[in-house]
Specification:
Length: about 140
């Protein structure tokens, strides 16, 4: 089944940060819901203290899960971002650019929500992403 998606992006500059206001999917195809993914390997936090590296690592893991399910980043219609509130300044300084570059390189244009949270599952986790894909 081929996806037919219309992107809703009324504000200039959103594409630079990998954010879109929304999209209309008309295929009614198969939906993949991915749980939140963090920068962990074998239950150990990676890149402790480096939010940009953690964000990219978590997104790479999300990409692995997408491929395992037979999906691509271009199939993602919703990408939710969770960032530890204590690291918001660091995220805006360096993490957001890293995420925007990554999403641009993989061709992901998805609506979503960005939430600052008090904590994540492990004290060394700084960010988490969850994705929904349709094809």
């Amino acid at each position: 089944m081929t996806s037919d998606r219309r992107v809703i992006a009324p504000w200039a500059g959103d594409e630079k940060i990998g954010y879109l206001q929304g999209g209309i999917e008309t295929t009614g195809g198969n939906i993949l819901w991915l749980s939140g993914t963090t920068a962990t390997r074998e239950r150990q936090a990676q890149h402790v203290g480096d939010i940009a590296a953690q964000a990219v690592f978590a997104l790479e893991k999300t990409g692995t899960a997408l491929r395992e399910a037979g999906y691509a980043w271009s199939d993602v219609v919703r990408l939710n971002w969770y960032v530890k509130a204590s690291h918001l300044e660091q995220f805006w300084a360096v993490g957001n650019d890293a995420v925007g570059r990554f999403l641009g390189e993989v061709g992901c244009k998805a609506a979503g929500v960005f939430l600052a949270v008090e904590s994540l599952a492990h004290p060394d986790m700084l960010c988490e992403f969850e994705a929904t894909a349709v094809k």
